[in-house]
Automatic annotation (TrEMBL):
Species in which this protein is naturally found: Pseudomonas syringae pv. tomato
MobA/VirD2-like nuclease domain residues: 91-185
Matching InterPro entries: Endonuclease_MobA/VirD2
Domain of life: Bacteria
Pfam family, one: Relaxase
Record-given protein name: Relaxase
Gene3D superfamilies named in the record: 3.30.930.30
Amino acid sequence: MNVIIPPKRGDKGSSFNRLVSYISDRGDKPKDDDLVSAAPRQNASRTKKAMFDRLVDYADRNDGDDRAVVITDVFPDGRQRLISGGISCETNCFSWETSAAEMNMVAAQSRRCQDPVYHFILSWRENELPTDAQIFECAEHCIRQLGMEGHQYVTAIHQDTDNTHCHVAVNRVNPITYKAAALWNDADT
C-alpha cells in the first residue's frame, strides 16, 4: 500500500463538498469544465464553508442528479458504509448526504484553522486486491496515526484504474474540542 498526499491547492480552494462529490461518483468521462473553461478563472471564495462545498462537489461529481445511496452497514460507533453512485464509501458523519455540511459547520467553529480540509489517497499495487473492509480498516488506521481519531471523515474506494485506491477526506477540526489537528509532519507519520 502506498500513501499519497496530494499537494494543497495554492488558492486555498479546498472544499469538502467537491472532494466528497469527486470521491463518491467517478464518472466514466471527466466533466468538460474540469478540463478547460472558456471563462476566465475567478478566485474562489476563501470561507471555510466554500472550501468544504467545493471539496464535496469535486468528490461527488454527480451534477445534481439523484444517485441512489444505499447504506450497507451501520456500526455501533456511528460509522456507516454505503454505496453511492456505484462507489463503496464509509463515513462517521450522521449521513453521507449531509457529511460536507456537517464538516463545514464544525470547521466554522475554529477561528484559527484556515484550511480544515485534509485529503490523502491510499493506493495498492495491481496484484494486490484488498477487500472493502480491509481498505476501510487501513484508512481508519491512517486517520488514527495522524492524530485525528474522532474527527469527521469520508472514505471512498475507487477501482476505475489499474490500482485499487481510496480517497480519504478528513476534517482537521475536532468536532468536540473544535481544535485543528497539526499536520506539519504528516508525510513522516
